[in-house]
Structures are given as C-alpha cells and as structure tokens.
Specification:
By secondary structure, the chain is mainly beta. Helix content is 14%, strand content 38%.
Length: 105
C-alpha cells in the first residue's frame, strides 16, 4: 500500500476499526464495521463538530436512513442495521497522492 499504512483495532464487542495513516503519522481516514457504532466523536476528533452540525442542518426525514455528510473536505458515511453497522470517514485534502477515496473501506 503505497503512501499509507492501515492500523486495525479490534474491540471486545467485535467491532473492527481501521485507521488510514500517512507516513508522517497523520490519520486521513477511518472505517468501522461490527455490531455497534463506535464513538464517532472520538474517531472524528476535531471534525466531529462539523459532522454533527451538518447532520443537524439536514432536513429531517422519517424512518431510519444512513447518516451521510459530504462536505467540501469531510466525508462521513455510516449505515447498517442492528448488529451489522459499517461506515467510513475521510478528509479529502489529506488523502495522500495517488490514494483514492475508495481505498477507505
């Protein structure tokens, strides 16, 4: 994997979290899958307020639907159903050269 490494974190509840890290040690993306949704405020760090504010500004919908934020720089997609959640988040401006957003999975 040129331009980045992937650190995997397995939680006791079976959730797998992947951090996508540049050679300089900067996390530019994360993904998760498992029976629970991890604490997104912890995973998103300084971007968590942008994620939350964007979700709150979106029109309300009825029923359940995946949460998605596609801002100019921040992308967060999360969905699934009970005991099978998945998602990913990345910062466009931090993607290493030659790394596509499809690599975050």
């Amino acid at each position: 994997m040129p331009g980045y490494t992937v650190h995997e974190i397995s939680r006791d509840d079976g959730t797998l979290i992947r951090e996508y890290v540049t050679p300089a040690g900067k996390v530019f993306g994360v993904s998760w899958s498992g029976p629970t949704i991890p604490d997104l405020s912890q995973l998103l760090g300084s971007y968590s307020s942008e994620f939350r504010n964007t979700l709150l500004a979106q029109p309300k919908s009825f029923g359940r639907k995946p949460a998605a934020v596609h801002n100019s720089d921040l992308v967060v997609e999360t969905g699934g159903h009970m005991r099978a959640f998945q998602g990913r988040a990345y910062v466009n401006s931090m993607l290493p050269a030659g790394v596509s957003r499809e690599a975050i999975k």
